[in-house]
Amino acid sequence: MLSVREQFPIFGQLVEGQRLVYLDSAATTQKPQPVLKALGDHYRLRNANIHRATHALGRQATRAFEAARDELAQFVNAPERESLIITRGATDGLNLIANGYLAPRLMAGDELVITALEHHANLLPWQRLAHRHGAQLKVAPLDGDGNLDLAAYARLLGPQTRLVAMAHVSNVLGTVLPVAEMVQLAHEVGAVTVVDGTQAAAHLAIDVQALGCDFYVLSGHKMYGPTGVGALYGRLELLEALEPVTLGGEMVAEVDYHSVRFAELPYRLEAGTPPIAEAIAMGAAAMFITGLDRQRLREHEADLLEQLRTTLAAIDGVTLIGSPESQVALQSFTVAGWHPHDLARALDLRGIAVRAGHHCAQPLVKALGLVGTVRASLGVYSGSDCITALGLALRDLLADSDQPSQQLGRVQLPAGPWAQRYQALLKLGREQPRWLAAEQVAATAVIGCESKTWLRLWQEGEAVYAAGDSDSALIRGVIALLVAQVNGLPPGQMRDFDYDDYLDREGLWRELSPSRGNGLRAIINALRHLAGERDRVI
Q1: Is the same domain home to 111 and 161?
Q2: What is the pTM of this model?
Q3: Are 487 and 530 in contact (CB under 8 A)?
Q4: Active site residues
Q5: CATH code of the domain containing 507
Q6: What is the pLDDT of residues 428-457, one digit of tens each?
């Protein structure tokens, strides 16, 4: 839908000198002009606090905010506008349900059920409550293709099941869960149901009445809206029973020094100044989505998903992760010989934005036997050209990695643009000998590095030497650079070497991502610690 892309200003500019190929919509969607306008108009034309203001700006802001509530209620087909609570994100909504509704009711021996593909936001609140209250957390499994095993799920339900939490769509596999069937089965045993709709809102028409769920959460920034805002739908009787978790202004009908009477719904659950401009812009995002031809959008995304899967499957060394029966337009994959983070950064240097890692669904990725995946996810602005660009870039990178590498002299990076230096760093990493499994043990592991990394020291006379290994070629290259500067020094000098200054001069602190930077800091700390221990022995 290339004509829609024109409504997204970000695609009309270059990013670091390159045309943006954005394949990371599952992490956050780009923002169309109507959303940007709604956000800006609030601050430019009617910036004021809401509900209690008596002046004109306050009345205008209140009307716009409450209109956004109406738009979001219509977006999910809520039966009443009062059942739509403005939150600070889907995570905020899930924690509100956990701490305001479930926590006061959960008892030892009760059971909570989730699915194996949940995002951390729909796992950790339930996990914590289970631990604190002596309840049991059960996990519904998947089949080999990434579909929910509905029969196994049904067997987990019973008279002690108090709550079932499920994603509408998996952010790792793109699986569309059979939510209506799952909700019906949960209700048959008297359980309350919570649906995480963050990945569904940009792709599927949402009807909470048809789904029959008790709670449903949305995240603004994953449905073409701004960050820092979300929405929680709940059945009125459950929202009435939900204890406010955050206390403050705006949610009170009457209060004295010793007692309080809370306001009516929805305001009793919206303490403090809400994200006013963001909520108004999220309402604009809902209108943007509903204004699209939804059938055409679904067909467009299905065609793109088929093209994406076909393109990736045709590349030697690429493995697709999951093949669910019903799937939105995202695909996770791995590439032989490449750590997901290394590959994502190499693609970024070619102007292609993808996501790499465990995608805040670490238990699922571990269960798949992976350290992470690369994920390409599509939005309404995506086109065939984006997938073609990804395929060409992957083929080029794989062809380049098969070429014999050039020696870098005394283990140093060449001068030039970062893209060339990054490729050299990857080649350097691939040159390093890999350790045997017997050497990759807890005693040599570096704690704090996102990649699996190991480091050891040994002594020859008065000098010490270090060597390392990692499942990331990039990290192997970084270790090779570092130890080349200090190998052969006395242990005290290795410990006191100014690693930060060296890495600043090489540009690594500036160019590496925050997660990679944290890993690099962990490696430096481990190197200094080992050298310090050796120095004390000498």
Answers
A1: yes
A2: 0.85
A3: no
A4: 360
A5: 3.90.1010.10
A6: 888 888 888 888 888 889 988 778 899 999
